[in-house]
Amino acid sequence: MLKPEEKIKRHRDLNWLSFNERVLQEAQDKTTPLYERLKFLAIFSMNLDEYFRVRVSQLRQMKRVEKSIRKKLALKPNKTVKEILKEVREQQEKFGKIYREEIIPELETAGIHLVHREDYNAHQEEFAHRYFKKIRKCINATTTSAFGGEELFLENNSLYFMVCFGDKSEFGIVNIPTDECERFITFSSETEEFKISFLDDIVKVNVPKLFPDKEITGIYEIKLSRDAELYIDDEVDGLLAEKIYESLQQRTDGQPTRLLYDSHMPEEDQKILRKRLKLGKIDMMPGGRYHNFSDYFSFPDPTNNPALHFEEWPTVKHSVLETTENYFEVIAKKDQSVHFPYMSFEYVERFIQQAAHDPQVKEIKISIYRIADESVVTSALLSALKNGKKLTVFIEAKARFDEKNNIDWGRKFEEEGAKVIYSYPKIKVHSKILLVSREENGELKDYAYIGTGNFNSKTSKIYCDHAIFTAYEKLTSELSRVFLVLEGELIIPRAKHLLISPFSTRKSFADMINREIQNKKLGKKAEIKAKMNSLEDKEIIDLLYDASEAGVDIRLLVRGFTCLVPGVENLSSNIYMTSIIDRFLEHGRIYIFGNDGKEELFFGSADWMTRNLDRRIEVIAPIYDEDIAKEFKDILEIQFKDNVKARIQDPTEKNNFVAPKPGEKEIRSQYEIYKYLKEKHAS
């Protein structure tokens, strides 16, 4: 058996690029409708922006650590960043090729033409000048010295033009106001062909008006990504909402991590811009003439052609929750499960609404990681307060990119009389839990909701998540203790059933993996099946390697990055791993341990990542209801059999698709799960 230090680990940041490559594969897939392929390009771009703002910026911070310490910890940030940039450049080239050689021609075949500035006809030129007059107040044009002087500041991820002059002692900066204006403008047309222009080009054609006395030699689009981390995660005394609120300014003026620029920009002008922004050569990333492809989420379809989009699926009607007028009555009799986006998030909303208006409900407690701006959930919680219910809301003030909205909502709840807790010292609260206390027969009875996804109706239409409503006292009593921990009334929540991070989850998972190892050595049935977003924790990976070496059959489904390398002889030959990228984003976590035929099944909010095991409040719940356990196992088995959208994860990292065997039926798991749930809930 290999020593832990000899066991192979992938670098998480490098393997993450392999995940984003899978997103790019979807954009290239000609069987995917055209506008959905555009969305995958947008997802790829959005993912990459966040990656540079968070992960690459963290590597850059590591460069500041004293060299002797970096060496001791085996940290090689410079080497890693260079490898990242090499891979990103290759992916960007592939991205551009897909866009130019596949997407654009197919849009034109569909009667949709992107018209660039140099191709404007007289009518479009006139339209561009008229439109510019309407938006002129949103545009700032400045001239700055090429060699120093006042600070040149570009906002994070905003679009600008660098305007080059004949006199190289200065240049111009013009913002492209995509926050105030639509990114894509449709020209009026009397034909069946539709002409669409980037806002960028409408601004570009009018740039000479902004610098009437200058000789303009070039106009090039640029975008600067800045560090997104607040760097206060390890405060000894915890994180106060006000402190985070005040720190949000760093989101716009954090350390630069990448300058994306039009690759046609002359080297002389690149150098001028780089020095004025105080960037290194490593921070410069050549790109196309347009940036922020995440805006393609809102690319217009003036044809309204359904063939260009995924066919809409009516949500599956839950056989029990759809018709009941009293959730408490049916949940008291039997646990109920829901699966998004196949089912509607309205089931969660109705449960909270019923709790808000039911005179027998005395108290509601909820943990929220990302709050939607205005939603049925927030309205129902406010109604609960107006109806005299006691409401405790735990709001994670450190949910990346949602801090401000979360804190704003916390203040609203406080103003209406709720008890609001913003953050738990040194730890994020990532669990998706709800507890309702209802007076029945003179006693309080608890009802719980435990899920893998956020309390957010918008994301529930995109993310594949699982959840259970339960009144099982052994679970609800332990969930009540989790909330007491959040409220500061308990230090450690005793639990025999729930796995609760950072208190018991790591040990429980380790014990169950070790039990499978021992069962295999004793000749008993031993297997591990798991589905998660990411796999990174060193201890868990080493245990999985040990289990593989012992002969335990291990089947993993990991959507995102993984530091475990499956399929390596004498290390992980008994581990088979796939990843699925399809029309919805896989987000659920399910864990099954064979236990010599007496299977144990868990689901919840935690991945096998160190942060989920040690630095977050997470809830992983066992599934005791036999019917629901079978449902979860069936769903997982369908995904294990996917041979259309599943990619093999192996040492090559080539993201090869799982291919159907001769005579084997094609199984596209998300489509099969939808059919499975429709059939099950048809009665």
From TrEMBL:
Outline the extent of the PLD phosphodiesterase domain: 425-459
Q: What class of enzyme is it?
A: transferase
Q: Which organism is it from?
A: Salinimicrobium profundisediminis
In alphabetical order, the GO MF annotations are:
ATP binding; metal ion binding; polyphosphate kinase activity
Q: Which HAMAP family match?
A: Polyphosphate_kinase
Q: Where are the catalytic residues?
A: H430
Binding annotation for Mg(2+) = R370, R400
Family, according to the entry, reads as follows:
Belongs to the polyphosphate kinase 1 (PPK1) family.
InterPro entries attached to this UniProt entry: PLipase_D/transphosphatidylase (IPR001736), PP_kinase (IPR003414), PP_kinase_C_1 (IPR041108), PP_kinase_middle (IPR024953), PP_kinase_middle_dom_sf (IPR036830), PPK_C_dom2 (IPR025200), PPK_N_dom (IPR025198), PPK_N_dom_sf (IPR036832)
One GO cellular-component annotation of the UniProt record comes to: polyphosphate kinase complex
Q: What SUPFAM superfamilies does the annotation carry?
A: Phospholipase D/nuclease, PHP14-like, PPK N-terminal domain-like
Q: Which UniProt keywords apply?
A: ATP-binding, Kinase, Magnesium, Metal-binding, Nucleotide-binding, Phosphoprotein, Transferase
Q: Which reaction does it catalyse?
A: [phosphate](n) + ATP = [phosphate](n+1) + ADP
Pfam families per UniProt? PP_kinase, PP_kinase_C, PP_kinase_C_1, PP_kinase_N
PROSITE patterns in UniProt: PLD (PS50035)
Q: Where does ATP bind?
A: N47, Y463, R559, H587
**Which NCBIfam families does the record cross-reference, listed alphabetically?**
poly_P_kin, PRK05443.1-1
This protein's cofactor list reads: Mg(2+)
Question: What's the stated role of this polypeptide?
Answer: Catalyzes the reversible transfer of the terminal phosphate of ATP to form a long-chain polyphosphate (polyP).
Q: What post-translational modification does the entry describe?
A: An intermediate of this reaction is the autophosphorylated ppk in which a phosphate is covalently linked to a histidine residue through a N-P bond.
Q: Name one GO biological process term.
A: polyphosphate biosynthetic process
User: What is the name attached to this protein's record?
Assistant: Polyphosphate kinase
The superkingdom listed in its UniProt entry is Bacteria
State which Enzyme Commission number(s) the record gives. 2.7.4.1
Q: Gene for this protein? A: ppk1
